[in-house]
């Protein structure tokens, strides 16, 4: 199964990809966009080209687990995206993903590393089920 993870940001989307049969997580670039429709259009093109089976979107909560403005932005993004795709979308708690991304080191953008961290956590969670 091809899974794409998204670290949503107001300026760009960080992407990470995994094929669950291979058991690897790879950085998959970023999508720049100054508007939500531009980000969604670019993402839909990636999803079609790469034949993604599932999306995992980082769900931003505060350290104490509460929703805030960033949570609302992500919810709006997913709501608008679902109008254009039929791919299943799961959320994954992205608390501390930036710290995890920073611990990964260099080589790819922080946005990609954050998406990788989100995807790693998601895959670990579904393994435990």
Major beta sheet summary: 5 strands, mixed
* Helix percentage: 40-55%
User: What is the succession of H and E elements?
Assistant: EEEHEHEHH
Number of domains: 1
**Uncertain spans, ≥5 residues at pLDDT below 50?**
none
Apparent shape: globular
| Helix run count | 4
User: What CATH first level would be assigned?
Assistant: Alpha Beta
Provide the residue-averaged pLDDT. 91
Fourth-tier CATH superfamily name: YqgF/RNase H-like domain
Structure description:
This protein is an alpha/beta fold. The protein has a single domain, classed as Nucleotidyltransferase, domain 5, CATH 3.30.420. The protein contains 4 helices and 5 strands. The protein starts with a strand and ends with a helix.
């Amino acid at each position: 199964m091809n899974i794409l993870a998204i670290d949503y940001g107001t300026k760009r989307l960080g992407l990470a990809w995994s094929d669950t049969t291979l058991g690897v997580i790879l950085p998959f670039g970023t999508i720049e966009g100054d508007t939500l429709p531009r980000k969604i259009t670019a993402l839909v093109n990636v999803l079609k080209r790469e034949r993604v089976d599932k999306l995992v979107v980082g769900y931003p909560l505060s350290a104490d687990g509460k929703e805030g403005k960033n949570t609302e932005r992500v919810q709006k993004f997913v709501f608008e995206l679902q109008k254009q795709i039929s791919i299943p979308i799961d959320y994954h708690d992205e608390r501390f993903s930036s710290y995890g991304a920073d611990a990964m080191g260099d080589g790819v953008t922080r946005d990609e590393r954050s998406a990788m961290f989100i995807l790693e956590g998601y895959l670990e969670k579904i393994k435990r089920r």
